[in-house]
């Protein structure tokens, strides 16, 4: 299966450097422009995109809908396994990279990394079985993108910028 992973476009909280997590924040105009640019780039993609899966959170949903409109009749499903990692009481606060370890996140009620890996891994296993020789697009969030990288490649991951597209063979 070919998996195209698209991180949702920019939001005002991304600009402000705030943890979004499960807080349902819409795209800003830059985010909509990013989604339209990726949508235009995906028109005529080879192999053709057979299915779109998206997180139901507004910022990913809006990104996916912009892409779907450009692609025409590609079906789309929303999947809870693609939602952003919950950051508990940290949501809405300023991100200080490297300031918290897993135990620090846990103290704030964040979703454990192992739970995130399990749900994203479950999604990947299911869609690869459903679409073994097809190309699918998953529209989701930063932590989901890092987890997809980890599941497919293992080890180190890179930060995925808003509106960025990555390609994986799974």
List descriptors.
170 residues, 41% helix, globular, 5 strands, alpha/beta, 6 helices, 5-stranded mixed sheet, single chain
* Rg (C-alpha, Å): 15 Å
Q: Name the quaternary structure.
A: single chain
Order of helices and strands, N to C?
A: EHHEHEHHEHE
Q: Strand count, sense and closure of the main sheet?
A: 5 strands, mixed
Which strand order do you get reading across the main beta sheet? 3-2-4-1-5
What does this structure look like?
It is a single chain. This protein is an alpha/beta fold and 170 residues long. Helix content is 41%, strand content 15%. The chain contains six helices and five strands, in the order βααβαβααβαβ. The protein has helices at 12-16, 29-42, 58-71, 102-107, 113-130, 142-153; strands at 2-7, 49-54, 76-78, 135-140, 165-169. The chain has a five-stranded mixed sheet, with helices on both faces. Helix 3 links the parallel strand 2 (49-54) and strand 3. The protein is globular, with a radius of gyration of 15 Å.
